[in-house]
Amino acid sequence: MKFSPRTFRAEWELHAWSGVIASWFLFVMFFCGVFALFHEELHAWQDPRSRRAESAELPPVDFDALFTWVKTHGKPTAGARVGVYAEAESHMAYGWMSDEKSGVEEDWAWNRLTGEPVPEITRVADELYYLHFFHRVPGGLEFSGVLGVLLLVATVTGVVIHLKDLKRQFWQFRSELRVRYSGSDAHKVLGIFGLPFVIVLGWSGVLLCLSTVVGGAFTWAAYDGKLETIEEHRSGGVPARFPSGKAAEGLAPSEIARRARLAAQASEAPRSLNVSGFGDEMATVYADFERHGFEEERTVVLDGRTGEVLRSHEHDAPVPGAAFERVLFDLHFAHFGGVFIKFVYSALAFAFCAVVVTGNVIWLERRDRERARLGNRILERLTLGVCAGLCVATGTYFLANRLLPLDLKARGDVEFGIFLAVWAVAAV
After folding, report:
1. pLDDT tens across 258-292, in order?
2. Could you give the CA distance from residue 42 to residue 286 in angstroms, rounded to a whole number?
3. Which DSSP string do the residues of 331-377 spell out, in sequence order?
4. What is the C-alpha to C-alpha distance for residues 90 and 52, in angstroms, rounded to an integer?
C-alpha cells in the first residue's frame, strides 16, 4: 500500500506529534507499570515486619476484631465505605475507610499472627503503583486514559506509515550508523515486536481509565441520568442499593463471611470484606474470594444488616459488560500465566520505554540536528532528565527503603520525599 505524499506527511505528523506530546508521561506509565505488575510481591518485600517463616501457619482472618478496630479508631459515620483484606503473600492484614461526610480517609495494618496493629513505615509498592496511572494528580485516572488514546493514535499511525516496509524493518538494526538511523532502527524493531502488547495494554488502559467518564455519558444518554438503573443492569438485575441515611446495626462480619463462603461454595474464607454504607440500614457487603486469571469473578454480595445473599457469581451469571471488564483487567495486569507472563510483560514494558526515548531522538535528529531551537533543546534535556531520572530515583527509593531506620518518624513520607527529590534533581 502506497500513500500520496500529502497523506503520508499527515500520518507522519500525527504519529510524531502524538508520540512527543505523550512521551514523558507514557514512559512513566510503562516504567511504573512493571512495579504495578508485582504490586503484591512488593508489598510483602517492602516491609521486613511482614515476612514470616515458611512454617508459620497463618490464622484465619478475624474480621470481627478488624472491623471493631476500624469502628473504634476511624469512627466512620453512617454511610461510609469501609473494607478489610488479608495478603496472600504475607501475614499482614489491611483496612481502609473513606468517609465522604467527614472527609476522612484512613488506612491501617495489622499483624495477623499477633493481632496487633502495625504502624506504617513504607509505601514503596503503593506509590509506584499509583504513579502508573497518576493517582495523586487531580483527574490523574482520566488523564491516563487520554494518554492511552494518544498511545493508540501513535501506534496505528506508526503501523500505517511503515506498513510497506515492515518485513524489512522487522530485523533491521544498523548500530554502526549515526544516531538518526540507528535510533530509528531500534525504534522500529522494538515497536514491531511489542505491537500486540502495546495495543492490548493501550486499549484496556483506555477503557479502564475512562470507564467512569464514558459510563456517566452513557447513563445520561440512555438512562435519563438515573445511576441506579444502570447499576441494576450492571449487577445482573439486582436492585441498586444506596445509603438511606438511617443508622442501623449490621450483622457480625464473621457471620457475613460465613454466609458468603456458603453461598460461594468456597473451601476458604473470603479474602476481603468491603462495606458500602457502613452502619446504614442499606449497608451492602462485597465478599471477594481468591481467583486466578480469566476465572469467573468470585464475589458474593450480601445485605449488611440481614445477611441476605443478594448476588453470587457461583449461581448468577455476570452481565456481559462486567465479564468483559474483568477480562480487560486480567489482561492489563497479567493475572494469568503466573510469574513467567509478568516477566514477559516487564520486558515488553521496558522495550516500550526505549521506543519512547528513541522516538524523541528521531524527532530531534530529523527536525533540528544541531539543536538550534530552544524548544528542541528543552525536549532533549527533559527526555533525559525525566526518563533516566525516574530510573535513578526508583533505585534510590528502593535503597532508602533498606537503609532508613525502621523507627524513623514519618518514614514512608521521608522515603517518598527522597524519591521525588532525586527525580526532580535529575530532571533539573
Report:
1. 999 999 888 888 999 999 999 999 999 999 988 77
2. 26
3. HHTT-SSHHHHHHHHHHHHHHHHHHHHHHHHHHHHHH-TT--SHHHH
4. 7
Residue 266 CA to residue 298 CA, distance in Å, equals 9
Q: What pLDDT, in 10s, does the model give residues 365-412?
A: 777 777 888 888 888 898 999 999 999 999 999 999 999 998 899 999
The pLDDT of residue 103: 85
Residues 166, 169, 170, 175, Cα dihedral to 10°: -170
- Nine-digit cell at 111? 499483624
Q: Is 165 exposed, middle or buried (0-12, 13-18, 19+ CB in 10 A)?
A: exposed
DSSP 52: -
Cell of 265: 461454595
Asked if residues 83 and 275 have their Cβ atoms less than 8 Å apart, the reply is yes
234 CB neighbour count, 10 Å cutoff = 16
Q: Is the dihedral of CA 215, 235, 318, 340 positive or negative?
A: positive
Amino acid at 210: L
